[in-house]
Amino acid sequence: MNFVNLEFTPVYHMIDASDSDLGDEQYRSDLLRFFKCSEYNDTVISIRTDKLFHQLKEIPDFMQIFTLCLNNPIVSTVGNGKVESVCLTLLFSFDFLHLFISALKEYKNNKNISPETYEKLRQLLQ
User: Fold this and answer.
1) Is residue 12 assigned to a domain?
2) DSSP at 6
3) pLDDT single digits (tens) 72-109
4) Predicted TM-score (pTM) above 0.90
5) How would DSSP label each residue in 65-77?
6) pLDDT at 58 exceeding the cut of 90
7) Element (DSSP H or E) covering residue 5
8) Does the structure show a pLDDT above 90 at 120?
9) Position 4 in a domain
10) How many percent of the chain have pLDDT more than 90?
């Protein structure tokens, strides 16, 4: 997973909700930082998303999360009810990115996702 940055902690979700412009700007910055991009590049992000998905789909902890993503109506429609990289698109969204990066860090460091992080993701994905 050296093509994504797990050496930082996203902060966008800590910004006061009353300052949505600042929160949105920080989210975009955190997302670019995660993808190791200095500016938005759809091609690079798409390639890295597909590469990440193909690595993660082999890991049972992440397959559980991807399966939960199928509860989302957009994901289930686009993915035809199958686990596909569109699950990552949801997990890269504003509501999920900080938790998903935590899950990736935990797996990288411990070879599993903590029950607390999994439960937070599960609750959001319902």
Assistant:
1) no
2) -
3) 887 877 767 777 888 999 999 999 999 999 999 999 99
4) yes
5) HHHHHTTSHHHHH
6) yes
7) none
8) yes
9) no
10) 80
Domain range spanning residue 56? 42-125
Half-sphere exposure of 93 (CA within 13 A, CB side): 14
Residue 121 has pLDDT above 90, yes or no: yes
Can you tell me the mean pLDDT for 50-78? 91
Number of domains in the chain: 1
Span 41-61, average pLDDT: 96
Task: Please say whether the beta carbons of 104 and 6 come within 8 A.
Answer: yes
Q: d(Cα 126, Cα 122) in Å, to the nearest integer?
A: 6
118 token code pair = 């999994």
- CA 63 to chain centroid: 13
Residue 6 located in a structural domain = no
For the chain, how big is the Rg over CA atoms in Å? 14
Return the ∠ at Cα 39 (arms to 100 and 26), rounded to 5°.
Answer: 50
In a domain, 55, yes or no: yes
Task: Report the interhelical angle of 115-125 vs 60-69 (nearest 10°).
Answer: 20
- Residue type for position 44: V
